[in-house]
Automatic annotation (TrEMBL):
Name under which the protein is recorded: Regulatory inactivation of DnaA Hda protein
Domain of life per record: Bacteria
GO CC annotation terms, alphabetical: plasma membrane
Gene3D superfamilies, alphabetized: 1.10.8.60, P-loop containing nucleotide triphosphate hydrolases
Organism: Rhodospirillum rubrum (strain ATCC 11170 / ATH 1.1.1 / DSM 467 / LMG 4362 / NCIMB 8255 / S1)
InterPro entries assigned: Hda_lid, P-loop_NTPase
Pfam family, one: Hda_lid
One Gene Ontology term from the biological process aspect of the record: DNA replication initiation
Molecular function in Gene Ontology: DNA replication origin binding
Residue span(s) of domain Hda lid: 161-220
Length: 228
C-alpha cells in the first residue's frame, strides 16, 4: 500500500434525524406542518409524499418520536390483526405505502382499525394517495379523503444546507467554495446529494485529502460515480 493512502472502511454512520435537524423551506414546509399538527389531524391517518431522498423518512422519524409510533414492517402487518396494531390509541408509520406490496383490503382494514381504536397512521409515498390507482372503491374513497402534503425538489439555498448537513452527519469539514462549486454541476435532487456525499467521503478518506473543490472536481469527472 502506498504511503499516505487510506482504505475506506465500511463503518456504520447515523444521519441526524431529529426535528431540530430537519431543514424547513418552501418545498417541505406544508409536510412539516402536517406532521407537527398531530394529534390534531382531521382524520386518523395522513400521508406525506414526494421524490426519493426528499426527506420523507426523516419526517417519518420525527413523527415516530413525537407520537411514540412504531414503524410497521409489511410482513408484520400481514400476520397481525389490524385492530391490535392500534390498541390503546397507538400510532404507527408505514413507509413507501404505495410500493409496500400490501393488499388493498389490508390497507383498508388498517385505516379502519386506526379509526376504531383512536390510533394514528402516517403513510409515506412517492405520490398522493388519491393517485395510487387502487381498485377497491371503499379504499379509494378513504385515501382520497386523507390529509396529504408533498415535498418537492430543493432550491439552491436548501440544497446547499442539505449538502452541509450530509457532510456534517459524516463528520466531514468542507472547504470554502466547495458547496458553491457543486450546486450548478450536480443533479438537482436530495438522493443525488446523498450519493455524492457518500462518494466524496470515500474518496477523501482513500486519498487522505480534505473535501475541497479539486477533490470534488475529480469526483464529478469519474464516469461511473453512483450519483449520476
Amino acid at each position: 500500500m502506498s504511503a499516505g493512502v487510506q482504505l475506506p472502511l465500511d463503518l456504520p454512520w447515523r444521519p441526524a434525524l431529529g426535528r431540530e435537524h430537519f431543514l424547513v423551506a418552501a418545498c417541505n414546509a406544508s409536510a412539516v406542518a402536517l406532521v407537527e399538527a398531530w394529534p390534531h389531524w382531521p382524520a386518523p391517518a395522513a400521508c406525506i409524499h414526494g421524490p426519493t431522498g426528499a426527506g420523507k423518512t426523516h419526517l417519518a422519524q420525527v413523527f415516530a418520536t413525537r407520537a411514540a409510533a412504531v414503524v410497521l414492517d409489511p410482513a408484520v402487518i400481514l400476520g397481525t390483526d389490524p385492530l391490535t396494531l392500534f390498541e390503546g390509541g397507538r400510532a404507527a408509520v408505514i413507509e413507501d405505502a404505495d410500493r409496500a406490496g400490501l393488499p388493498e383490503a389490508t390497507l383498508f382494514h388498517l385505516l379502519n382499525a386506526a379509526r376504531q381504536r383512536g390510533g394514528s397512521l402516517l403513510l409515506t409515498a412517492l405520490s398522493p394517495p388519491a393517485r395510487w390507482g387502487v381498485h377497491l372503491a371503499d379504499l379509494r374513497s378513504r385515501l382520497a379523503a386523507l390529509p396529504a402534503e408533498g415535498l418537492c425538489e430543493p432550491d439552491d439555498e436548501l440544497m446547499a444546507a442539505v449538502l452541509l448537513k450530509l457532510f456534517s452527519d459524516r463528520g466531514l469539514d468542507v472547504a470554502p467554495g466547495a458547496i458553491g462549486y457543486l450546486l450548478p454541476r450536480m443533479e438537482r435532487s436530495f438522493a443525488a446529494a446523498r450519493d455524492l456525499v457518500v462518494h466524496a467521503d470515500a474518496l477523501a478518506l482513500r486519498e487522505g485529502r480534505a473535501v475541497t473543490v479539486p477533490l470534488l472536481r475529480q469526483l464529478l469527472a469519474t464516469p461511473d460515480r453512483a450519483d449520476r
